[in-house]
Amino acid sequence: MEITTDTHSHHISQQFNNELEDLKTHLLAMGGLVEKQVQDAIYALTEGDSAIAEEVRANDRAINDMQIRIDEECTRILARRQPAASDLRLVMAVTRATSDLERVGDEASKIARHAIKLAEEGEPPRGYIETRHIGNHVRNMIKDALTAFARFDTELALKVAQEDKSVDLEYRSAMRALVTFMMEDPRSISRVLNVIWVLRSLERIGDHANNIAEYVIYLVKGMDVRHSTPESIEERLSES
Amino acid sequence: MEITTDTHSHHISQQFNNELEDLKTHLLAMGGLVEKQVQDAIYALTEGDSAIAEEVRANDRAINDMQIRIDEECTRILARRQPAASDLRLVMAVTRATSDLERVGDEASKIARHAIKLAEEGEPPRGYIETRHIGNHVRNMIKDALTAFARFDTELALKVAQEDKSVDLEYRSAMRALVTFMMEDPRSISRVLNVIWVLRSLERIGDHANNIAEYVIYLVKGMDVRHSTPESIEERLSES
What does this protein do (chains A, B) (predicted)? Predict the structure, then answer.
């Protein structure tokens, strides 16, 4: 009798482990697609490639669907498995991260929309070097945040939170340059505004990467570090 | 014995009900504060009242703290009560809504920051009539979304989703007017950009109200209607 019970409980628990692994895999797959969307949107913008931009727009629906499916998985696990402690934190971190990833997807789609407008107007506007630079920066943050999630790596998560500050600085400096440019050449205003919206989207993507990094710390350490500065996160991590 | 068991189970369940009621009350309290922040931020902007704007900035921390506390409540209920069906949906809807409310608080704080900048510059810029109008519109959407949550009212939630479309139209029309104004008077560019950021924040607040309305439908009907048009939401509601 005991053996049967043990086997059964082992079986249940193994299945539960698989479900949690699947959940994580699905989140990371969504993350991979979102990261590619960001990369393609920046490429479409800086190369004036409207075809790629249209693809990014079309893919957004797939990301939305992934969010809904992953959230259904989370709710199903909560209802059937009644996870506790770190299992529960994993489910909560996944449902939060999926929401941020979906919003990153939205921003990539917006960048693609502006890329199409700018490509139609021809004439490559100012701000592309900065845009490409900040774009690569935030794309790496997303990638690192996902790697940190995959590996439960709080060190890497902290690094992402620290990066967000320098993105903000780069963003502000690029914005000032664009505003000056608009003042010098008022005919360029509506064109430059498109680049400004792209910068704004990139800055948001950095924020979302930062959020995902914070969920990793929650997941691993059980500390909710949202709304904390990187310095205080570092301090709390070193004390834990 | 049976009576004891019944009383006990009744007691447990009553306590669980109270916890769910408390959770809802806390979300609505947070919502009330966020709504006031939006109202005060718009007032500070249109009346050039920097003191109110500073208050809005200072209150943002309280909203962040509320989010963390409400999320802790959600996690505690999930771990201890292992809710199922509509109880589980309530907890998930609260945790999602609290995230949107926190972001609305951030947008109110940003509006307040721009209000301070604009007040310093004196000279009331263009776009305030539109800003006040759109501001009141999205504030009502937040209020209605919260009322819909409080009453489990899917009709009102649908109305909020429908409103979001007209906010988008108002936003686009106001943006066009501001861009034209910048072109006509390039010296106003940096001032008008501040108003543009405010409009952008207001449009976002409308999006968050719409999200909260979608959670109400999820909560009451068990249908995840995120990323759906108001038309398809209406259709799905009428079929349910």
Answer: Plays a role in the regulation of phosphate uptake.
B106, B110, B187, B193: best mutation site toward chain A, by most A Cβ within 10 Å? Answer: B193
Identify the pLDDT of residue A126: 78
pLDDT at A5: 43
Query: pLDDT tens, A80-92?
Result: 999 999 999 999 9
Contact at CB, B72 and A190, closer than 8 angstroms: no
Give, in order, the Cα–Cα distances in Å from A183 to each of A54, A189, B123, B126, B197.
32, 8, 19, 18, 17
The lowest-confidence range among A76-80, A163-167, A204-208, B127-131 is B127-131
Domains of chain A: 2-239 (1.20.58.220)
Give the residue from A211, A229, A233 showing the smallest Cα distance to A107: A211
Query: Exposure string (b/e) for A181-203, b if CB count within 10 Å is 16 or more?
Result: bbbeebebbbbbbbbbbbbbbbb
Statement: residue A59 has pLDDT above 80: yes
pLDDT at B126: 78
pLDDT reported for residue A9? 56
pLDDT band of A127, cuts 50, 70, 90: confident
**DSSP states of B139-205:** HHHHHHHHHHHHHT-HHHHHHHHHHHHHHHHHHHHHHHHHHHHHHH-GGGHHHHHHHHHHHHHHHHH
What is chain A's mean pLDDT, rounded?
A: 92
ipTM: 0.92
CA distance B178 to B192: 7
Mutate to test the interface with B, among A67, A70, A74, A78 (most CBs of B within 10 A): A78
Q: Phi and psi (nearest 5°) for A124?
A: -60, 120
B12 exposed, middle or buried (CB, 10 Å; 0-12, 13-18, 19+)?
exposed
